[in-house]
Amino acid sequence: MPDTTATDRTRPDRLPEWAALGEHRAMLGEAHLRDLFAADPERGGRYTVQVGDLHLDYSKNLVTDETLRLLRALAEASDVAGLRDAMFRGERINTTEDRAVLHTALRAPADAVVRVEGEDGGNVVPEVHRVLERMAGFAERVRSGVWRGHRGDPISTVVNIGIGGSDLGPAMAYEALLPFTGSEAAGERGVEVRFVSNIDGADLHEKLRGLDPATTLFIVSSKTFTTVETITNATSARAWLLSGLDGDVAAVARHFAAVSTNAEKVAEFGIDTENMFEFWDWVGGRYSMDSAIGLSLMVAIGPERFREMLEGFRTVDDHFRTAPIEANAPMLMGLLGIWYGAFHGAQSHAVLPYSQYLARFPDYLQQLDMESNGKSVDRAGRPVTWPTGPVVWGTPGTNGQHAYFQLLHQGTKLVPADLIGFARPVPGMSAELIAQHDLLMANMFAQGQALAFGKRAEEVAAEGVPPEQVPHRTFAGNRPTTTVLATELTPSVLGQLIALYEHKVFVQGAVWDVNSFDQWGVELGKALAKRIEPALTEGADVAGLDSSTAALVSRYRSLNG
Ligand code: F6P
């Protein structure tokens, strides 16, 4: 096993390969994509990778063959492949939590063998498939109406209560796969799913609006089952349910299910562990959407489509494990991000889906990427002297075009961006709406082109623009994008996309030598909130508050009378 915490490990920015990239960057200077494309008519075809149904075009990045060679050398020197293989083998690469990192086992085929290092439990794959089977049985019962509420009614709405990784993945995927929810043709009933995450009571309040407790099923999703937001919302949901069902506590068993690694806490909360779907500590919260955390999604789309999604994940897992670095999509995407962060000073990375169904994909990626690689010490605990994870952000591209794209085109910040689009619209829309797809995609292609090639002052002037306006209407271009053009947004393609980004994040963490699988940075705020809360609810004194927080607390109290 590679010793990931070794203090004699060469820091990335002291590797000769890092220095070589620095020199190469200086030599490239402001080499323009216009010139790179002009010098190599094949560029647009050469700098592409096909993985499953995803076509990745990275030709509009600020790279040459030499850049790619040097980036590959950096990946080799950092032994990204070694760490990747250790992850797939079940080694405990999450050293600060002493855990294996095995989200890839969640989509392994039934005959695969994956063991967790240092555990006697043996192969985890049969256990994964056992839970999948239980989930499928439950989902089918709910979807078909066999599962009945306390008063004998079938379930029409599932409310998923969870936060972070226990919310963002299923919520994103539910929206992405809305066209695959229910199917009258197959005689399936559509079950609506709503997602509640915020401790702000407004979230639950709004999501319960119009619901009938007799036909509502809550799925409480929490890896730890101790997360304050989730347990508080689940407790309020329970009270709402009981008040609507004459206070009969027997109703809880028919209206509450749980997804967790913590059976004890689930039982303590009062949910029958018969209705609990488990996962394991070797699945990180932000890597858990294809575990039982996806139960609400499975209820919505059905087990078969959920399995298709898992197959999509697996397609990219296999590619990541086996493709050489230069033809390996997650490797390339990860290395490009490192190139921009360390050698171009990029602070952020935009993800711009040209798909309304993927509206929540950037939110999902924020946790995946920023909770994984927003670190400032290396795996041995030493402060890093190189930039780590970027700020990840984005919205559907067309909407962004009318908002912040101005800055992308003419601002002073370099923002590398991913443009994600689909060759075909999802079926089921009217012919008129399907026809809008070409316009949508024309926008995506146009933005990649405009960002890369810009518009020169001479071209602007040649259009008769008055000289004083020319600088305002000039586009410098040379703004990098990677285009992911997929066939169609199906469950499998969604799985492929998610795995692509999971592994991209892995590659970056491996090169930056950070532990991408812990999240200690979220703990301090949680602990402080616990200390401050009694001051707000009971007027208790909180010792040791700074003058700003103390004044805010006291103003809050006085405003509440
Ligand atoms: O606070 C951060 C975090 O721990 C995430 O990593 C996690 O996805 C989320 O909270 C929810 O945790 P849980 O699933 O244990 O409720």
TrEMBL record:
Keyword Manganese: no
UniProt catalytic activity: alpha-D-glucose 6-phosphate = beta-D-fructose 6-phosphate
Main location per the UniProt record: cytoplasm
Gene Ontology molecular-function annotations: isomerase activity
Name recorded for this polypeptide: Glucose-6-phosphate isomerase
InterPro entries given in the database record: G6P_Isomerase, G6P_Isomerase_C, Phosphoglucose_isomerase_CS, SIS_dom_sf, SIS_PGI_1, SIS_PGI_2
Function noted in UniProt: Catalyzes the reversible isomerization of glucose-6-phosphate to fructose-6-phosphate.
PROSITE patterns noted in UniProt: P_GLUCOSE_ISOMERASE_1, P_GLUCOSE_ISOMERASE_2, P_GLUCOSE_ISOMERASE_3
Organism lineage: Bacteria, Bacillati, Actinomycetota, Actinomycetes, Streptosporangiales
EC number: 5.3.1.9
Record HAMAP family: G6P_isomerase
Active site: 371, 402, 526
Keyword Isomerase assigned: yes
Protein family according to the UniProt entry: Belongs to the GPI family.
Top-level taxon in the UniProt lineage: Bacteria
Pathway note: Carbohydrate degradation; glycolysis; D-glyceraldehyde 3-phosphate and glycerone phosphate from D-glucose: step 2/4; Carbohydrate biosynthesis; gluconeogenesis
Stored PANTHER family: GLUCOSE-6-PHOSPHATE ISOMERASE
Enzyme class: isomerase
Subcellular location: Cytoplasm
Organism, scientific name: Streptomonospora halophila
Keyword entries, A-Z: Cytoplasm, Gluconeogenesis, Glycolysis, Isomerase
